[in-house]
Amino acid sequence: QVQLVESGGGLVQAGGSLRLSCVASGSIFSVNDMGWYRQAPGKQRELVAAITSGGSTNYVDSVKGRFTISRDNAKNTMYLQMNSLKPEDTAVYYCNAHYQDRRDYLRRTYESWGQGTQVTVSS
């Protein structure tokens, strides 16, 4: 089993910046695709940004040019640099990862979620 722990959320004024981190730990053989999702009150969870193990990225249109996703494979850590934050970015942000468990010799892919970190942007 792999655990994901997010950090870096908080309260910031519009136009400000935050950097989220997500650390994967546990029975890791490899971590494949990773992503950041967010869920605002009363809304469905949406994919904000994703990154492959090779570093290819994609973003939801609303954050393009403002957010940057990155990862450090040696540290099993993913980041989300959020600049020019807007009140509509307010949400709980979740880390997601697809991984292979070192105890599973069939090398099946599993999925794990973090507990979420609150980001609040005031106007």
**Share of residues in strands:** over 45%
What Rg, in angstroms, do the CA atoms define?
A: 14 Å
**Amount of helix:** under 10%
Q: Count the helices. How many?
A: 0
Order of helices and strands: EEEEEEEEEEE
Mean pLDDT: 97
Characterize the largest beta sheet: strand count, sense, and whether it forms a barrel.
7 strands, mixed
Structural class: mainly beta
Number of strands: 11
Sequence stretches where pLDDT stays below 50 over 5 or more residues: none
Distance between the amino and carboxyl termini: 40 Å
Q: What's this, in brief?
A:
It contains no helices and 11 strands.
Describe this structure in words.
The chain is mainly beta and 123 residues long. The protein is 0% helix and 60% strand. It has strands at residues 2-7, 10-13, 18-26, 28-39, 46-51, 57-59, 67-72, 77-82, 91-101, 109-113, 117-122. The strands form two sheets. Strands 2, 4, 5, 6, 9, 10 and 11 form a seven-stranded mixed β-sheet that branches. It has a four-stranded antiparallel β-sheet with strand order 1-3-8-7, with no helix packed on it.
